[in-house]
Amino acid sequence: MLLYTLTRLAYLAMVLVVMSILVFLVTQAMPGDVASMIAGQFASKEVIDAITVKLGLDQPLIVQYGRWAAGILQGDLGRSLVLEQPVAPILMEALSRSLVLAVVALAVVTVIGIGLGVLAAVRRGRLADQMVSGVSYLGIAVPDFFWAIVLVLVFGSYLKWLPTGGYAPLSDGFVPWASHLVLPVVTLVLMLIARIARLTRSSMIDVLQTNYVKYARAKGLPEKVVIVRHALRNALLPTITVLAIDFGLILGGVVVIETVFSFPGMGRLLLFAIQRHDLPLIQATILIISTAYCLANLTADLLYAFVNPKIRHGMGNA
Amino acid sequence: MTALVPLSAAASPDPTPASATASAAALLEVRNLTINYASPRGTLRAASDVSFAIRPGEVMGLVGESGSGKSTVAMAILDLLGEAGRIDGGEILFEGTDLRRLSAAHRRRLRGDRIAAVFQDPFTSLNPALTVGRQIAEPLVQHKGFTARQAAPRVEELLAEVGIREPRRIAQSYPHQLSGGMQQRVLIATALGCDPKLLILDEPTTALDVTVEARIIELLAGLCESHHLSALFVSHNLGIVNRICNSVCVLYGSEVVETGRTRDVLARPVHPYTKGLVAALPRITTDRRHRLSSIPGTVSKLSGASESCVFAPRCPFAEETCRRLPQALRGDAAGNSVRCWKAEALAGTPWPEESTASRPQAAPPARSAPLVQVDALRKVFGERRSILPWLRRDGTVAVDDVSFTIQRGEVLGVVGESGSGKSTIGRSLLALIEPTAGTVLFDGADFVKQAKEGDRDLRRRAQLVFQNSAASLNPRKTVGAAMERPLVLAGRQGEAERREMIAALLTRVGLPAAYADRYPHELSGGERQRVNIARALATDPEFVVCDEAVSALDVSVQANILNLLADLRDELGLSYLFITHDIAVVSHIADRVLVVYGGTICEEGPIGRVLRPPYHPYTEALLSAVPRLGGAEDGPEPERILLEDSTAPPGGGGCAFRGRCPRKLGAICDERAPPVQTAADGHRIACHIPLAELAERASVFPELAALH
Q1: Comparing B273-287, B357-371, B559-573, which segment has the lowest mean pLDDT?
Q2: How far is residue B207's CA from residue B627's CA, in Å, rounded to a whole number?
Q3: Chain B residues close to A217, C-beta within 8 Å
Q4: How many Å lie between the alpha carbon of A254 and the closest alpha carbon of chain B?
Q5: What's the pLDDT score for residue B321?
Q6: Best mutation site among A124, A219, A225, A315 for testing chain B: the one with the most B CBs within 10 Å?
């Protein structure tokens, strides 16, 4: 298990190095010249040249990359050109808000999604199953911005129970904080619950037909124990992977939902940076998003190995 | 046996069961149990009017082929029928109480406590995510109120009782870390935990190797005796039933057709179906040229009440009456009963023998150049090279330095347990697997090289028949379409010509030509295997690898297919490599046999020689483990050689069998590969024990000596 983890971490480092090179090259290839953008539309050539030299943009790409990468390793993500302040604190703020969104959404999805999936599998073919399946189809088929708009109209504009957008830090008090989270979280989880419920249902149905579940019943265990200890534990393996990856996705920003609810998370930050052509901000944001995604994947694999003894006890000497 | 007392009139079913007289003392009594299954095509009968009784301390065998309803009855007793199955009538009395009248919760409390179960496939019956110790403890915690901590010493005690040597370590293992035999011991320990009265054993050894099966049966028999347990032993294997059961109940087409004491029923079967079943069993002691008896036809799916004898369509003794009236179970004074009105008349009549006269004797294998020549074949799986030292892997040696030849028209049997490398040998011969080292010559040409270069003709000349008849046919293609492809590849261009050939091939394997338009799911297992054989024959091959080709089939069907394969060999001059775990099957069809263990050949020779001493210690144990029929008249059963549970063959030099060998000499077996000693007539044994000493052992089959 330790060797497995180490190997995976080594792979992760390699992926991040490759990722940073790609991010750097792609942002270089973007149309428009940074120096002239900073200098403004009517700046003279001398001013632009001066900025170019100041930012080191006249040096070879490899040197520019080296300086950028070295900075990152020292915790310096660069300075935002547009906001004219260090990127790191801006990013951390957005990331922390996305983290709140991801944690709350994931908790809701885990409880409700798995619960509905198990219910549907156990009552396979009956009313409960048909309702869960029907609602899941709706959740998956209808795009999230539709729900977002409906929710804003109903609870924000019409009933006026909840704010239609924005974000309040926890320091403003629990109620404002929570009330700003409700609508984005609900929209976000509608689709995720549908997916997790369907996934859990199908793997649960497979596991319920296995011999070891039949044998658990033959031991005279109560149905609750059979379902939770014997069936669910094994049925959750694919679900865990998907949940961890979903977590990484939310952390990396959900652009549509963040836009509709004016939620200042990673998604909106990236959108802002791209629209303003703020290269250091774009580079740092993408890098952080990919890191978050890779870490979520790694967590998924480690969790999977931890829950599955076949991998846990086979990987150590692999 | 003489006086059959009709308990009920044949035409009007009487609720009084045959075993009513025994009911007072019975631990479990099943009365007139009727179970139906809901299926998309209507209601199917799984059990009709099934009655039997098990007394305390009695082990009853419930035998029948697939579809007979035997597992359904067992599951009904455990209340584990599932949603599709429904009990439509009858009683299940356990200690005098009808289980059907109890609440579901009450039935659940009996399960695992008073009535415990062991299922067929131990690996899938254990939860992969929990330690086996925890799984054994579950019934104790549930029914006896133990805490997990209190249960731990009892779990170790149970594991020790089922013959596991390091109970503490095993209790902390996960199922995938144990061998099949150990897993089955774990299940048995689980079942014993709460001191049950009744064990339901559903094919408990079917998934195990023969030598492991022998140990598990020994263990079960001992436990039933020492704990005064009763058991219902569900099995399709008459040999095993003969060894462990006091009484037996034969099911056919959802009905009990015969029941009585094991030694009566199996030694002198009365019902035609039982006669056929016993006659169809391949026996080591019959001659290789002897044609196996078989039961014609297949089990049909049953729905609605029967209006005739269920067995009449396949019965050689059937008359008009049999087709008009359903049969009732009639008991005799000894407590045996049979569902056949002609039973008395048929008492001395054996199952009709298949004529052997019509069969042309095959020419003895020619002494010319061999058709297949395998030299120093070696296959290593999963070897991985890497610059990172912890990613390097040595791989598993599946086949190590195996050499043999097959003559034209010869059948070479390969016998071995799971993991012996027998399938790898078969696949390497057809270049489906690339050997790591060694050569395979087919008619003088390097098969692997030629096949790589796209030589279609070699592929045409060598074919394969697999074990799983359903999985080797594309479910979306008709039988005809499946057979057309090889014909096209063999260069048959005309469509009319191909259709004619398909019809001829189907007829050749004993199927109606109209089957060409059917889909695989419309055929029975035996019919599908015939289609697979016909498809293999389509390219007019000279050599066919049969990889466990009859293992998944019921006994009566297996006999059919074995006869067909033997006919094809005799008429078309085919050579087979016949891979199987069942030495009785091999003794029926093979000229010569290789006994393989851990990827090496331990013994090879003409079948008649291999069955007689001198034996390789592994062959001796394998032969001794084979379950056999044979009543009291055959004398006492010979002492069985019981091997340790299988462990992974130790790597490195030395003998592959040394880890389980009961006759291991010492260091020499660990250090040096055993020398190949030639006994006679191409009979070779790879063992350090001198030939003369090996020859001193008594024959496992003394009756063979009298035969030749």
Answers
A1: B357-371
A2: 15
A3: 80, 108, 111
A4: 35
A5: 83
A6: A219
Q: CA A124 → CA A110, B80, B104, distances in Å?
A: 20, 17, 20
Residues ≥6 apart with Cβ < 8 Å to B313: B297, B300
- Say if CB B211 and CB B595 are below 8 A apart: no
Dist CA B609 CA B589 (whole Å) = 15
Q: Which of B574, B569, B596, B600 minimizes the C-alpha distance to B674?
A: B600
Band of pLDDT at residue B576, cut at 50, 70 and 90: very high
Q: Please report, for residues A16, A213, B321, B334, B682, the alpha-carbon distance to residue A223 in angstroms, rounded to integers and kept in the order given.
A: 47, 10, 50, 44, 61
Region B7-25 average pLDDT: 43
Of the listed ranges B363-367, B400-404, B622-626, the least confidently predicted one is: B363-367
Residues with Cβ within 8 Å of residue B273, at least 6 apart in sequence: B250, B252, B257, B258, B295, B311, B314, B315
Distance, in Å, from the CA atom of B612 to the CA atom of B625, rounded to the nearest integer, reads 15
Mutate to test the interface with B, among A8, A206, A215, A221 (most CBs of B within 10 A): A215
Residues in A lying within 8 Å of B, measured between beta carbons: 3, 7, 210-212, 214-222, 225, 229-230, 233-234, 307-310, 313-314, 318
Q: What is the ipTM of this complex?
A: 0.81
And the tokens for B596? Answer: 């393989």
Strands B600-606 and B683-686: antiparallel
Q: B561 is written with which tokens?
A: 């297919």
Residue A305: closest CA among chain B residues belongs to which residue?
B129
Contact B58, B230 (CB under 8 A): yes
Q: CA-based diameter of chain A, in Å?
A: 86
Q: Give tens-digit pLDDT for B647-669.
A: 655 566 788 888 888 888 888 88
Express each pLDDT in A209-267 by its tens digit. Answer: 999 999 999 999 999 999 999 999 899 988 988 898 888 888 887 888 888 888 888 98
Condensed to tens digits (0 to 9), the pLDDT of residues B89-119 reads 899 999 989 999 999 999 999 999 999 999 9
Q: Contact at 8 Å (CB) between B161 and B189?
A: yes
